Amino acid sequence: MRVVMFGYQTWGHRTLRALLDSEHDVVLVVTHPKSEHAYEKIWSDSVADLAEEHGVPVLIRNRPDDEELFERLKEADPDIIVANNWRTWIPPRIFGLPRHGTLNVHDSLLPKYAGFSPLIWALINGEREVGVTAHMMDEELDAGDIVRQEAVPVGPADTATDLFHKTVDLIAPVTIGALGLIAAGQTEFTKQDRSRASFFHKRSAEDIRIDWSWPAEDLARLVRAQSEPYPSAFTFHKGKRLEVLAAVVSQNRYGGTPGRVFYREGEGVVIVAGADARTGRNHGLAITRVRTEDGRELPATEYFTSMGGYLTNRP
């Protein structure tokens, strides 16, 4: 099939690589300009560079809503558009232009985790598996019929970076497998159960601020979700920002006020956590490694020279 590809960052790069290695003919690529957004500078392999290396025409757009782009798409005469990590709305006159419509590739197990940063949100929420879904695009965000979907398990110590590497390897088989079904003439695919749908926004600094009223299990997953190269989860100690680089749920249960710097346990320092921590039924968060406001990284047992005091949400 003649394919036009819309995509950005490493997800788009992997999709374009799979298409270039396939039997299909990539006739045009549309991608976003480089961004200074903290999360868009991560996994930033260039779709434009890869296309140009293979002699494929490239258009750079923030939004696909201008007449020049529409005319170029009509001239390209695609059988299908394939999109992955395209960051703005694609209007119906574009996604409905190709003979077979538009196939969107999304890094979640739709209908759950539509929208942005699905791997991070899924890890924070304790999902047991994540994956990649190829679905036909329609007017509702990430809501079209599912053509192909594959899942991988979330391990007990997995970080968001681990899940990225697990799922990015699914892009090629999911995309090319879905295109194979479409090229073979299949037109009926799996409807999404919209009662199970969930939508998530882009991550920002507010989303990585530690709230000590959360249970320790949730906070441990937040720390893993914000693993390098993502911005680290942070709190404040004595008015200064403190990034939490590694933490685990404590072995013992600790009662008191959330945020209290309480006890050395193993290689960590336990912080009281949970809205009902006063009951004494909660585990705490055992912080094992931190980064200070001036950039020093050190074990928590070295940073906290004495117990007592509080970690807070604000300075």
TrEMBL record:
The lineage of its organism: Bacteria, Bacillati, Actinomycetota, Actinomycetes, Kitasatosporales. Residues 1-169 form the Formyl transferase N-terminal domain. InterPro entries: Formyl_trans_C (IPR005793), Formyl_transf_N (IPR002376), Formyl_transf_N_sf (IPR036477), Formyl_transferase-like_C_sf (IPR011034). It comes from Streptomyces hebeiensis. It holds the Pfam family Formyl_trans_C. It comes from the Bacteria. This is Methionyl-tRNA formyltransferase. Gene3D superfamilies: 3.40.50.12230. Residues 204-306 form the Formyl transferase C-terminal domain.
